[in-house]
């Protein structure tokens, strides 16, 4: 289904809609594998370039931003939260027990509920909210691959979206809000971008961009001013370059045609050196969970899908 006026009503139901796990046991557990583009690209180390797009777009929807504020330690332990939440999602894709890990991710959210600024309720396992969180990971695979690894053909984008349905099924949450085609997903994504709000969570999480990276305690201020200048320049060009304009607007992040041009040059350079990246040791090219999965099945993914398939 596409996002429309029913979205507001559905999301305010604030009720979890969970798939019956008992009924699933009679059927083979769905899973992705080495023949999927999600396996090939999701665990690529270059995905780190999209960390702010992934986390930020999710929390620009008020209910999810509020859920993080109400139930997370993001303000006290930002990196720790990322380390705790990232591995289970990775294992949903790459482990030999994907359904187990998908249900684990789901069950983390059973008690995440509360109210937003207008007094309406939210629940993290409401399908409209849970699917949006999933959609940001689907977008990450599509966007990071096409921007920094190599251009994807239309057929490959469709394939990644279709594979994302299997991925979502592993969580055991109703798919009632899931778009059915890649074109519907694009329309859904655009609609959700227009729902972004400057929630405290995402404004806080992008503070390092506006204010500059914080100085480590052991580094003298004069040294840090010099050392941090190129890092802050990279962040304000490359990291902000990955972010949708709607997120830049609600987070107060500066952007202009000059920075856009620099960003596109960087992205083109990254795609140009993709053949070099593909010669790196597998352990360097993939995050640990993906690397281990490729090793266990005895497949070297580097020669796979290096050239896009025709549309």
TrEMBL record:
<feature type="domain" description="ER-bound oxygenase mpaB/mpaB'/Rubber oxygenase catalytic">
    <location>
        <begin position="39"/>
        <end position="272"/>
    </location>
</feature>
<dbReference type="InterPro" id="IPR018713">
    <property type="entry name" value="MPAB/Lcp_cat_dom"/>
</dbReference>
<dbReference type="Pfam" id="PF09995">
    <property type="entry name" value="MPAB_Lcp_cat"/>
</dbReference>
<protein>
    <submittedName>
        <fullName>DUF2236 domain-containing protein</fullName>
    </submittedName>
</protein>
